[in-house]
Amino acid sequence: MLKISSLNCNGIRAAHRRGFTDWIDQSDPDIICLQELRAMEHQVPNPIQNLDYHSTYHTAEKKGYSGVGILSKKEPIKVEKGIGVDWIDNEGRIIMAEYEELVVFSIYAPSGTTGDERQNLKMKFLDHFLPFAQQYLEDEKPIAFCGDFNICHKAIDIHNPKRNKNTSGFLPEERAWVTDLLDAGFEDVYRHLHQGEPELYSWWSYRAASKDRNKGWRIDYHMTGPGLLQAAQEAVIEMEWDLSDHAPVSITYNI
């Protein structure tokens, strides 16, 4: 069995203060995909660096901003950072680790909540990402794109779809993009294992006790090819942990 977890840590140093290593001790993932490190590699707290995991990071040029990483019990046989688009790669948004059994990506899509300029960049990111991801569907090895896509796909994935229909993260063109990703051959593993179940969210605003009231959004995904979907045994959003405004999303595969 192989357990893959994904977490937008909203600052790896903050997540550490909130019990990140305790979560690892208890949840025991084999591979951990991290997003929004908000730190340079040398700023990752020593207790995390000293875990019995191999670590690889792709940090942003801008200090305290973005950044992705992958921790794994097994050492990857290959690591690639970025997708060859300068502005995306400078923001540290995509990293790949290849193992004997599969290929794993940690993805942090831009947020468009700060205004039109960032929303336009978010859509450009998505336009670059789709063909980049598609090429890996043809590989022999199973593929998993894990991370914070900053989009709720359907009304079931957001606590108030009517009120949020014009909000970044639930715009019609963003939702259509997720549909295009699925139509290209990817599978939303968590939703596949929880079909039709409402109120399953992975992010909650820090405002208005949103998590206590479970007024959230499901914006963190494991997107895989069909082969890995068939191996998925269990999918859990680990809400009990308050490591971040996101919860870890963990999926166990029979491989």
Plain-language structure description:
The N and C termini lie close together (5 Å). The chain has a single domain (2-253), classed as 4-Layer Sandwich (Deoxyribonuclease I, Chain A), CATH 3.60.10. A hairpin with a 4-residue loop joins strand 6 and strand 7 (103-108). The chain has 8 helices and 14 strands. It has helices spanning 12-17, 20-27, 46-49, 86-90, 116-134, 172-183, 189-193, 226-231; strands spanning 2-8, 31-35, 54-58, 68-72, 78-81, 94-98, 103-108, 143-148, 187-188, 203-204, 216-217, 220-224, 232-237, 249-253. Helix 5 (116-134) packs parallel to helix 6. The chain is an alpha+beta fold and 255 residues long. The relative contact order is 0.17. It has a 6-stranded mixed β-sheet. The protein has a 6-stranded mixed β-sheet with strand order 5-6-7-8-12-9. Strands 10-11 form a two-stranded antiparallel sheet. It is globular.
**CATH hierarchy, class:** Alpha Beta
Strand order of the largest sheet: 3-4-2-1-14-13
Topology order in helix (H) and strand (E) letters: EHHEHEEEHEEHEHEHEEEHEE
CATH superfamily: Endonuclease/exonuclease/phosphatase
The helix/strand class is: alpha+beta
CATH topology: Deoxyribonuclease I, Chain A
Percent helix, as a range, is 25-40%
Supply the number of structural domains.
Answer: 1
Number of strands: 14
Stretches where pLDDT is under 50 for at least 5 consecutive residues are: none
Number of helices: 8
Outline, from the CA principal axes?
Answer: globular
| Rg, nearest Å | 17 Å
What is the distance, rounded to the nearest whole angstrom, between the alpha carbons of the first and last residues? Answer: 5 Å
Strand content: 25-35%
InterPro entries: AP_endonuc_1, Endo/exonu/phosph_ase_sf, Endo/exonuclease/phosphatase
Family: Belongs to the DNA repair enzymes AP/ExoA family.
Cofactor: Mg(2+)
EC number: 3.1.11.2
